[in-house]
Design a protein that fits this description.
With 313 residues, the chain is an alpha/beta fold. The chain contains ten helices and twelve strands.
Amino acid sequence: MPVKIPSTLPARATLERENVFVMGEERAARQDIRPMRVAILNLMPTKIATETQLLRLLGNSALQVDVTLLHTATHESKNVDAEHLLEHYTTFERVRDQKFDGLIITGAPVEQMPFEEVDYWPEIAAIIDWAETAVSSTLNICWGAQAALYRRYGIPKHPLPRKMFGVFEHRTLAPTDRLMRGFDDVFLAPHSRHTEVRRADIDKVGEIAILAESDEAGVYIVGSSDGRHVFVTGHSEYDPLTLKAEYDRDVARGLPIDVPKNYYPDDDPSRAPQVRWRGHANLLFANWLNYHVYQVTPFHPGDIPVGAMHSDF
């Protein structure tokens, strides 16, 4: 089934070229199935690239997904055209009285700052709190995962001696968990971050568990026992050339940056990178949409209850 997006969204042309199933609003309105309402809080400076990556994965499921794109009202994006935001995005204040089946909070290039020093932290904290009663399940990515773990459970982030940068092996720790169904015992996923959350801090919180981790990259997927909160510390959504673009950018700026590990053949940046995480990315998003959103959300979004709504799954 398709992801429903406006015909004017730049991602649409890219997704159609890739044969991703997208649908216009008129055709979607003629279908009897209720679309899943998913909001995406896009905190990345490269908003068009990020929204395309996420829509690609949301569009590879058996569900019709009605997407609402959100940006922060308390921070001005400098890397995206203002007209794009005005036409395709809205703010939290305009949707805070609504309910959504799913919410995705992306990463952000602010991970080396204390959370409270980020200029839009009060807004992010308010959105995380709002999701408790307005969203069936939230998928938090990279800094978004760190922010939500900190806001909900007081779990800190810790600086790394070197940037975690590349594609790393991960082990599935909970193969019978709904989110992990169909996962290989060992799978690959990209990371690009300067900070980490640690197992010792997570193990102190009884209502969440580590579902996948890496010997080198550390904690990767964390889930709450009721399925309402998923935290992913890496970037399974990344395009084939996203890590290359980040590496080339930092090299051009003269910044200290290592070649992303296990990304280029023989770690040689003169060679074309290999994509070895695409299958994992599609399965992760498909499982989240199916088991943590579609299978548990009420038919009427306004009926989303407060609290442990997944107990009757």
